[in-house]
Design goal:
Blueprint: H1 2-22, E1 25-27, E2 39-41, H2 43-62, E3 67-69, H3 78-84, H4 86-89, E4 91-96, E5 103-105, E6 125-128, E7 131-134, E8 144-147, H5 152-157, H6 159-166, E9 172-181, E10 196-206, H7 211-229, E11 237-241, E12 253-261, E13 264-275, H8 277-282, E14 300-307, H9 308-319, E15 320-322, E16 327-329, E17 340-344, H10 350-364, E18 369-371, H11 377-385, E19 391-395, H12 397-402, E20 404-409, E21 415-419, H13 423-432
Parallel strand pairs: 3-9, 17-18, 17-19
Antiparallel strand pairs: 1-2, 4-5, 4-6, 7-8, 9-10, 10-14, 11-12, 12-13, 13-14, 15-16, 19-20, 20-21
Helix pairs in contact: 2-9
The chain binds adenosine-5'-triphosphate (ATP).
Length: about 425
């Protein structure tokens, strides 16, 4: 048992090291000693993250008739957080060690003494997780505002504006991707828990009587997203029906989708039935939804919520594999930062380099492409395997004769000869299926 835990911790170290070495994720503000678990996405990380966000937006907004998107201001009127209940209830129990002064989340440690120094722990108190700042030049209590702790509230506050401009009828959803901030007591586990992170959320508005059916629909949609789009293994995903004593203040039912991260089984996403709690609290003076033939009413809400950074981490953990001679990220091709890499067989043969550049420029019209002419071909393959590039294309002397290149598949390592004129379509078909 101990060995397994060690191996898994080791896996996390390897993933963090690969992320830094290859430019997926770096420690934020590193040259100044970093800043309390903040992380920056590098050139490859931002591609992976953007691919996830774009696929999500396409699948849940653009390809559906019943969901529209918004991109709201990050700092909202503080009254939003009064009405939503965040000012009074969005808190975690904080406990401090009397000896070393370290702080912990009381619900995350089940010890009587400090886990660090074994000193006596103080009383637990509630600590509000919203990050505060001042808007404008005067720093007094009237200028206090909060960085949003979730993207969700803008979808409720903008409900009427969206309804009137999109002319949607129930059931319909509003989606948003954006940053959220929480003054987490104990950030950690790399990009799993940070104080600044991104969410992809949908508030799906329904008639109360349909909530169970719609909840099931979104449960299936989320399962299919994790397995078919992100490529996570079914056996690594677990659904936890959150016990009623632990439900958030707005929720009548929540399922946490947990993933087997190397540091344990932890929440990846959530699906909640938020009732009409939010719309009722924001639209106190005016019932916001009317339909012909019935009295105006408050729609109920099903909320599927997806953490972007936890998606990136789960994808990296699931894709990382060590084989005899190589480390390979078996990313779904649609998620991979580079779809294809182009190599001239030899760097010092100008005709090979020129032909390889031509192939590269042509591929760039359709894909993110890497170009590498360093060292031997085997090393170049391994270097692309490590960042998950699904296809490598080599231009050799035969190419100059017959216009055929060698395409090597990341997962099988099989090689195939393909005509340059058919290359873009070949890769397109392999990656997108048509
Ligand atoms: P946890 O129990 O892990 O603190 P939560 O239940 O408070 O999470 P939600 O409020 O449901 O999380 O937030 C929705 C999603 O946002 C989560 O499922 C997760 O993917 C992501 N998320 C929440 N907090 C963080 C964080 N501090 N860092 C990164 N992602 C986060």
């Amino acid at each position: 048992m101990k060995k397994e835990v060690n191996n898994k911790n080791n896996l996390m170290d390897k993933i963090i090291s690969l992320c830094k070495r290859r430019g997926f994720v770096f420690a934020g503000s590193e040259i100044y000693g970093g800043l309390a678990n903040s992380w920056d996405y590098g050139p490859l990380g931002v591609e992976l993250k953007n691919n996830i966000k774009q696929l999500w937006w396409k699948q849940f907004v653009q390809m559906r008739d019943d969901v529209v998107g918004i991109d709201a201001a990050l700092i909202m009127n503080p009254k939003v957080w009064e009405s939503s209940g965040h000012i009074s209830t969005f808190s975690d129990p904080l406990i401090e060690c009397k000896k070393c002064k370290k702080r912990f989340r009381a619900d995350q440690i089940d010890l009587k003494n400090c886990p660090e120094c074994k000193g006596e722990l103080g009383e637990s108190r509630q600590f509000n997780l919203m990050l505060k700042t001042f808007l404008g030049p005067i720093e007094d209590k009237d200028s206090i505002v909060y960085f949003r702790p979730e993207t969700a509230q803008a979808m409720f506050v903008d409900f009427k504006n969206v309804l009137e401009t999109s002319r949607k009828k129930l059931p319909f959803g509003i989606a948003q991707i954006g940053k959220a901030f929480r003054n987490e007591i104990t950030p950690g586990n790399f990009i799993f828990r940070t104080r600044e992170f991104e969410q992809m959320e949908i508030e799906y508005f329904i008639k109360e009587e349909n909530w169970q059916e719609v909840f099931k629909h979104w449960q299936k949609e989320m399962q299919s997203w994790m397995i078919d789009v992100l490529g996570l293994k079914q056996g690594s995903i677990h659904e936890l029906d959150v016990p009623s004593s632990e439900l958030a203040h707005y929720s009548k039912k929540t399922i946490d989708f947990e993933y087997d991260f190397p540091f344990g089984k932890k929440e990846l996403y959530g699906l909640a039935y938020r009732t009409d709690f939010d719309l009722r609290n924001h639209f106190k003076d005016e019932v916001p939804y009317k339909e012909e033939g019935v009295e105006p009413f408050y729609p109920h809400v099903i909320e599927p919520t997806f953490g972007v950074d936890r998606s990136v981490l789960a994808v990296l953990c699931g894709a990382y594999q060590e084989e005899d001679e190589r480390i390979v990220l078996k990313l779904k091709p649609q998620l991979a930062p580079y779809k294809v890499a182009v190599f001239p067989l030899l760097k010092n043969k100008p005709e090979l380099v020129a032909k390889a550049k031509e192939v590269y420029d042509n591929l760039k019209k359709d894909f993110m492409v890497a170009f590498d002419d360093r060292g031997n071909i085997g090393k170049r393959y391994y270097s692309q395997d490590e960042i998950g590039t699904p296809y490598c294309v080599t231009v050799d002397f035969d190419t100059l004769e017959n216009n055929e290149v060698t395409v090597r598949d990341r997962d099988t390592t099989q090689q195939e000869k393909i005509k340059v004129s058919e290359l873009n379509n070949y890769i397109k078909e392999k990656i997108y299926g048509n």
